């Protein structure tokens, strides 16, 4: 594929290395709590990647190995939602187009549709389920409809080289399957959510559509646990604070990316942690570290 010069330059600005071990850090005093908590996780053997930027200025507020490509589980379905939003203007793929689920789409894990009786749902409803609950069944049905290759092309067009949705959702992964559902770098993910917040992905209408689906997310167990929102009703500002986020959970993986706006400022943030999930205490330590980072973010915007 021939890439125009302007597009090539944009890709280079957001390119990241796929492998990296060197720890880089930049942290103002207001983020010392999160830096210490995430640092302790890294000292304990976890791999940590994080970044936070000011939404208005783009200034980097916090970074820890933000170039490293990490497993991000369900976070990668944001790319699917972007592709779905781009298709809604097609005559044969509108918001009310009905899609059927099949036995091949079925998968355990997160989501509501597997527990519902309806065998078919409109495209827009499936996208809402993905945004709200990381619905695995809805993800697979939408992927079958738009095609994983189309999502990959869209990802390339956005200039993302270290972030991608690699596969459909599977109950188990064999040697011929992608090892992870998705991967991403904190650097690219904060750029992506900043661009969504500014209406620069697809166009303003397309960005708003994606943000609308993401605003339904009910998983506030990680970074967002520090913000005090109701998991099921936080689409409107509360005490002057507004959140849009996406999370990913897998064995030994916790990942979150989002935009947090407050009375004083707005931030785009991303954090991914890859760890040995051998005990409940290990998992809780990861969640505590992510919450500490969230407290710093809240203090910055509020």
Automatic annotation (TrEMBL):
Keywords from the UniProt entry:
Hydrolase
One matching Pfam family: Beta-lactamase2
Q: Does the keyword Hydrolase apply?
A: yes
Tell me where in this chain the Beta-lactamase class A catalytic domain is found.
52-274
For this chain's UniProt record, which GO biological process terms are given? Answer: beta-lactam antibiotic catabolic process; response to antibiotic
- Please list where the region (Disordered) is annotated: 1-25
Domain of life of the native organism = Bacteria
SUPFAM superfamilies attached here? beta-lactamase/transpeptidase-like
Tell me, what is one Gene Ontology molecular-function annotation carried by this entry?
beta-lactamase activity
- Per UniProt, the ranges with Basic and acidic residues bias are 7-25
Q: Does the keyword Hydrolase apply?
A: yes
Which PANTHER family does this chain map to?
A: BETA-LACTAMASE, BETA-LACTAMASE-TYPE TRANSPEPTIDASE FOLD CONTAINING PROTEIN
According to UniProt, the name of this protein is Serine hydrolase
Q: Which organism is it from?
A: Cryobacterium arcticum
Question: What taxonomic lineage is listed for the species of origin?
Answer: Bacteria, Bacillati, Actinomycetota, Actinomycetes, Micrococcales
